[in-house]
């Protein structure tokens, strides 16, 4: 039996608006995550519930309010413009939000229709479940449902709803919203809520901030190790829990370039692959500013508060670098990567960047000797390999096999699946969803999914679908 306990709904009214999802005319299940459903105790849910037509017992639907910096520009009120939080399910593994994305208009829709179409819903389902399987903290996907309605974008598309599961949907922008209003009580209540829910080990506001900084360092290093480009690292898209959230125009690098940008709206490359660590640092600085009034009260002065928070913020680069070294060291089969190994890692990345070697296949190819063939500078690779062989662990193959997936959600494959679904064929989407939940253990018949796109298949831009 599903056990709801809706702690966010018990926060004061200014944190949210109670609202039910809009009705969907003819819900149809497209993708269903059976394992996650069983873990959450919702195995009996159907398309009617996942479309918001039926509200499960104990749920208390609401839309959350938040603000945020979007590409550096301040937006004082954002919020769940096309999503409804059904409530929080409590299991033996913890507390999880269940969220309907694409469930219709809310007070925060900002003239939008509040709906989603099938393309972004399939993309988020496939990519988020891959990220989970690859060991990256992430929101997860329980269901993808066609609504039976149409959504107007550049043309009319089949409407859809994603049932998203998360540790919470609290963002840096949630803190920013109340800080901008000078609502210190709300910031304090939110701080206490986040501490109790995500970081109970934190005994103070400063310790809470330190835990959030550590979690973000781990998360971004994990992204980098997969060649993942989020695309919209706005402060309203950074979850304080340390999970990846809001997959919009995300993509995975095929031919390696540190400057890779895919999002159609990121015209200046603010959120390019190589920029992601510094952008996370910038977002954390915005969060830190929200804690100043509380810290001032705890430490007895504004200057003391700013200095203490700045010290924590300034720890991020070193924390991130240590995580990055561990992630990429494992991809080289190094059991105990040291500072000196950073040059070895960077040298391989440099060889890959020269001619856009395939990111995933090069690292996975270290297992079977095929990495050399993805890099055009073979002489340079051979010289590099001599140093690498001297550093790799006795069980290096086992280490690499666990650190470098054999297959990733390549954008051209996702687009292929979306186009097939638009034509009424969901088999390609179902295949990706199945294969990408076991990305380190690829069956022979699925090896075609490891191929980079042909020149005519390359997807140069991705779109958020709003």
Automatic annotation (TrEMBL):
Mg(2+) binds at residues 237, 246. InterPro entries: SelO. The active site is at 236 (proton acceptor). ATP binds at residues 79, 81-82, 101, 113-114, 164, 171, 246. It is an enzyme of class 2 (transferase). Its cofactor is Mg(2+); Mn(2+). The keyword Manganese applies. Belongs to the SELO family. Nucleotidyltransferase involved in the post-translational modification of proteins. It can catalyze the addition of adenosine monophosphate (AMP) or uridine monophosphate (UMP) to a protein, resulting in modifications known as AMPylation and UMPylation. This is Protein nucleotidyltransferase YdiU. The gene is ydiU.
């Amino acid at each position: 039996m599903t056990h709801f306990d809706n702690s966010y709904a018990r926060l004061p009214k200014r944190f949210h608006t109670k609202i039910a999802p809009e009705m969907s005319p003819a819900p149809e299940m497209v993708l269903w995550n059976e394992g996650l459903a069983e873990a959450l105790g919702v195995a009996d849910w159907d398309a009617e519930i996942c479309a918001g037509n039926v509200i499960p017992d104990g749920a208390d639907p609401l839309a959350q309010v938040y603000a945020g910096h979007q590409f550096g520009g301040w937006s004082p009120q954002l919020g769940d413009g096309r999503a409804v939080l059904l409530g929080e399910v409590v299991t033996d593994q913890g507390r999880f939000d269940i969220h309907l994305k694409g469930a219709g208009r809310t007070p925060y829709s900002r003239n939008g229709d509040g709906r989603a179409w099938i393309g972004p819903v399939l993309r988020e389902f496939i990519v988020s479940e891959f990220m989970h399987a690859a060991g990256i903290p992430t929101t997860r996907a329980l269901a993808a449902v066609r609504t039976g309605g149409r959504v107007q974008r550049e043309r009319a598309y089949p409407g859809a709803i994603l049932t998203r599961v998360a540790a919470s949907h609290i963002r840096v922008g949630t803190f920013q919203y109340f800080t901008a209003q000078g609502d210190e009580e709300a910031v304090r209540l939110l701080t206490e809520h986040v501490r109790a829910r995500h970081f109970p080990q934190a005994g103070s506001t400063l310790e809470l901030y330190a835990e959030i900084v550590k979690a973000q360092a781990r998360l971004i290093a994990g992204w980098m190790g997969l060649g993942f480009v989020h695309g919209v690292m706005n402060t309203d898209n950074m979850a304080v829990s340390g999970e990846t959230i809001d997959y919009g125009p995300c993509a995975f690098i095929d031919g390696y370039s540190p400057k890779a940008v895919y999002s159609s709206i990121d015209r200046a490359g603010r959120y390019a692959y190589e920029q992601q660590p510094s952008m996370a640092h910038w977002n954390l600085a915005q969060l830190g500013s929200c804690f100043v009034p509380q810290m001032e009260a705890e430490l007895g002065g504004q200057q003391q508060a700013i200095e203490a928070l700045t010290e924590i913020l300034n720890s991020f680069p070193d924390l991130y670098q240590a995580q990055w070294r561990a992630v990429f060291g494992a991809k080289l089969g190094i059991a105990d990567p040291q500072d000196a190994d950073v040059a070895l890692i960077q040298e391989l990345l440099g060889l890959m960047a020269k001619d856009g070697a395939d990111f995933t296949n090069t690292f996975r190819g270290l297992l079977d000797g095929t990495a050399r063939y993805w890099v055009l500078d073979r002489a340079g690779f051979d010289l590099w390999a001599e140093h690498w062989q001297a550093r790799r662990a006795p069980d290096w193959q086992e280490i690499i096999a666990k650190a470098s997936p054999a297959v990733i959600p390549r954008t051209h494959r996702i687009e292929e699946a979306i186009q097939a679904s638009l034509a009424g064929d969901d088999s390609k989407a179902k295949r990706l969803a199945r294969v990408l939940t076991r990305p380190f253990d690829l069956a022979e018949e699925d090896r075609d999914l490891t191929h980079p796109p042909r020149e005519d298949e390359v997807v140069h831009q991705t779109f958020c679908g709003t």
